[in-house]
Amino acid sequence: MNFKFSKKISLGFCIGVSLLAHVVSFYLLQKHSFWITAPHHSEKDVAFISSMPKKMRNQILKETFQKICANKAPTSFFLSEIPYETSFLFISPQFEAAEVEISKQPLFADPKAGYQPPSSLNLPKHAPLVLSEHVSKNLFTPSPTEFPSHKQNPSPQPKTPFKAAATLTPGKIAPITKKQNLAMFSLSSEVESPPKIVEIFPLPDFPTLEDLGAASFSEDFSAEISFLPIENESYIFAITLIPNPDFQVPKLHQHYSFLIDRSNSIQKDRLSAVKSAVSKALEELTLEDSFNIIAFDSRADKFAPTSVAATPRTIQAAKRFVEQIQLGNFFATASLSKPLYSTVPFEEEEGELYTSILFSDGETLKKRASQLELARDWTYQNQGRAHLFAIGIEGDPQVSTIDAITALNRGKTYLSPTKRGIKRKVLKLLKTLRHPIATHLSVKTVGCSPGASLSLYPKSYRLPSLYLHEPYVILGKTERLDDFILFVQGKLKNQWFNIKKRISFVNAKKGGKSLQEEWSLQQAYELYHAFLLDLNPSHLAEAESLLQPHAIQKAFQ
Fold first, then answer.
1. Residue 228: which of 510, 421, 470, 17 has the closest Cα?
2. Distance of CA 119 to the CA centre of its chain
3. Which candidate, 137, 134, 158, places its Cα nearest to that of 147?
4. N or C: lower Cβ tally within 10 Å for the chain?
5. Do the beta carbons of residue 258 and residue 291 sit within 8 Å?
């Protein structure tokens, strides 16, 4: 019992001693440590500071605030009036000049941002800091030559502090000089109201086209426009962008894939015409291009596992591969989606373009499952990375379906009236594709009048690339023939591509039947896209009603 009682006494004694030691330590630390609280300023210190020469105090303040704001200085400023209570800088009436210069470093800190004078100044607590009394007059250099003071010219001064504000242009910010950073407001001696207060805020520096790695080619293209009135008091129009003949751009690296349908439905003479056309097309490739050839029916044979450079040696080997292509057996049916899957790049390289050229009659697409496999599944997998073009013959059974699939994949279908004309079509196509200007295009408009309503086609997800030897046609619809600004942007190798054109209908040509036909076709492509999303047959019925007046067969029969 005594043992337990003695343990409690010992424990209580230890706790008491520990608490006493903590209290004493905290008292000594608070009284003598600089980190817990600032040392108390004696009257002697206050007297010393008061007796300090004003020039020395000004120099201390200048150096101190420069250190505080060394990394906070904005590159340019604009001015706005604020209430007197929130003022950080008081402009004294004795500064009569209309504009002043300031040093590169800020001369004052913002209390709201948490900037406080360092404790090394040892300012007395009862002496508030008034910046207008401490900032040296030498820091301001009056420049009354441009704007005379109110004594020299009693006429009222313009309220706009920046002369450059009237010369601002869209997309470009005029530089603001140091003289424009502060504006002095002239005060009459008869006015008893307190002087106006100004506050300085940072103005963001917007990047230029050069900073963004972009280039403007607006002057390198001419724009032609035609329009046609339609029902509901609206208009359709076509804008054709034509590059100048001497326009030069860096060449993109092209990857060509030639897909040759060798199924039995092609027939021997047509296959021979296709083989001759591909052999001739290989001679048009340059050393900067790469290519591959895939012959397919129910199975696919490749010339090379991946694309190879278009050197004289590889082109000769490719010609021998083409000559050996034979017609498939009677029971072999072509699968268009299988060879096309191998043309989709896993990852697009900077400044490269992937193009697939399909030679087929589309006989295998008479089945709905084959149509959906190619039009929906492959198109979704492709995401527009490989541009699909097709070469066919007029009268092929699935021309409309192939045309819709190429349009949904940033390409186009070319039809030859005869089998011998296939060679001319593919050579013309290669001449067009040889010099791509920009890829991944987007087209926007900004109306010049309020309430302007504009819609453009093709939509961004299927906009084709821009080529040097091919006019670029943009269709649209508007309710009023008002001017608007057209913006075309895309990717040109390692930089962004920009075209800005003001479109006016004053000198526009009146469109004809071809414009109405192309407009109906673009509307049908959008309905085909909607059908592939929900498989609702009403979209196809609506597309058929649009195309029937132009004797165009609908796709996805």
1. 510
2. 48
3. 158
4. N
5. yes
Instruction: Provide the β-strand partners of residue 476.
Output: 237, 456
Any idea what DSSP says for residue 85?
Answer: G
- CA separation for the pair 62, 60 (Å, rounded): 5
Alpha carbon distance 226, 473 (integer Å): 11
Domain borders along the chain are: 43-202, 214-247+437-511, 253-434
> And the tokens for 105?
């470093």
Pick 386 or 101 by higher pLDDT: 386
Question: What would be the CATH architecture of the domain defined by 253-434?
Answer: 3-Layer(aba) Sandwich (3.40)
β 308-309/466-467 pair status: unpaired
Report the alpha-carbon distance of residue 358 to residue 365 in Å, rounded. Answer: 14
Check residue 57 and give its pLDDT.
Answer: 62
CATH 2.60.40.1230 fits 214-247+437-511, yes or no: yes
pTM value is 0.63
Is 208 within 8 Å of 439 (Cβ atoms)? no
CA neighbor of 409 nearest in space, from 376, 456, 455, 372: 376
Give mean pLDDT, residues 357-366: 91
Q: How far is CA 348 from CA 146, 215, 259, 412, in A?
A: 57, 22, 20, 21
Burial class (CB in 10 A: 0-12, 13-18, 19+), 442: exposed
Question: CB of 497 within 8 A of CB of 217?
Answer: yes
